[in-house]
Specification:
Layout: E1 2-6, E2 11-16, E3 22-25, H1 31-43, H2 48-67, E4 72-79, E5 86-95, E6 108-109, E7 113-117, E8 120-131, E9 138-148, E10 155-161, H3 167-179, E11 182-185
Antiparallel strand pairs: 1-2, 2-11, 3-4, 4-5, 5-10, 6-8, 7-8, 8-9, 9-10
Length: 194
Amino acid sequence: MRISAAGADGAGVSLELPPGWWALPLTATDLPARVEALVAGQTAALPDAAGEELTAEYDRMTSTARTAGAVLLAGGAAAANDDGRIVVASLLVAPYEAYRGADRPGWSEGPSARVPLPGGTAVRHTWLGTGASPLGPVRQLDVEYVVAPPDPPSWILAFRTPALRHVVMLLAAFDAIAATMRPERTSEPAPVFG
């Protein structure tokens, strides 16, 4: 599914998400209704309490993402081919200038790599550490792409996953998603001088 999101300045981005992923444009005026529809689709066969818990979790995630400067929150889950375990990941997309990244005290910084992407040059940074989750503290991998397209602004694609047994597979999936990123302009910025 191809999704788009834009900041207040009209600069936007689109990217392709794998089947089964969900997306919430954080600048949407109907965000609460979108969260409600997402939860309803994911919990139709579950008790009402599950829907309430998931709504609370999505509300927490959207609030955290907005505070970080993100314009899009997405995520997905799939069964791993090798062992059938459920592998989950989330994604924040934010303009570089607006992004206030995760505070990572005690996290280990992993390798950084230059990744050539059709949407622009990117540098991929990785970190490993313990982060908050609905189940309490969990070891997680953070992967951030700083993408500099030919025309400003630059973008941050920030992935997070607790699926540490599947890092190689997930890095390939994250690279593939990042490769679909395209800058867009939804409106012309206001003139600087009258």
